[in-house]
User: What shape does this take?
Amino acid sequence: MKRLLKSAFLFVILFVSAVCLDAQNKPVYTDAKGQLNYSQLDNWYSRKLKESVILSGETIELYGVGKVSKDADLTDMKLKDPVSPWGTSNVYAKMVLDVGNTRVTPEKRGNGYCARLETKIRKDNIAGFKVDVLLAGTLFLGETIEPVKGMKEPEKSASQGIPFTGMPKAVKFDYKHRIGKHRVMATTNVKPVAGEDKADFSILLQKRWEDEKGNVFATRIGGNRLFFTGTVNDWVNGATFPVFYGDGTSQPQYDPKTMGLIPSVGKVYVKNSKGAMVPLVETGWGKTGEKPTHLIMYFTSSYEGMLYTGSTESVFWVDNIELIY
Assistant: This one.
């Protein structure tokens, strides 16, 4: 009898573990209701990177959304929650020296937390050589490829999107923001850039496939993109934004400069089945009723932060993300 109970117990443990993995041993990033894991943004962990004294000499907190064991090695730069779909622009870079940048942090809100996304310039003085680099706070669905080994083609450091087959009619989240008006570009030196900064939210549903050479293509099934400017000091709770399906060019809100197909509106990279980072190419618009295979979604404090451009005054707070079906 004891042997039977032990076998039953082991079966339950294996079954519970299996719900987090599909048949190909890939993480499942949504719950039974089709909601993204940790979308309330109340669960966070932090990797701890000790920088060289040549840089800051400080321990940098690299926050991630999710949970890890209380006994986890927080100095392990590969540490992550395998069922968290969320990546951030909190990155570990190795450019001769170990460098850490944190632009997304948990901020206390009521009994839980929200995500604070902030655009900042990191200033370093290495052997008398000054380096100023601007990075925006970005929370996205996907994976950060670490360590980052250079500043060229920063898009290659983020594999965007997760496997997803749902068809939400809208996205709901809480937000507030303080977006700066004066933009700069900073890679080594700081240069002024025309135009006001904007916080950016985007959702894209895609049907992807891969050819025999490992190139990844997609059709656009649905999506939406929104920009936020100015200052909203009080939380806007439960703001709901529709997801549009079908040929985007026929929709009244369509703007080819911001909602066009990838890569016409910007470069996006994804990890293919071979583990290589490759550019994603959208070949057209999906047909009515066609189901997606992947979901891209991100929130960022500066819409051109990937180009090291934005305002150091820009902050975007986000909380309680929900997909509406």
Notes: The helical segments are 2-18, 256-259. The longest strand covers residues 216-228.
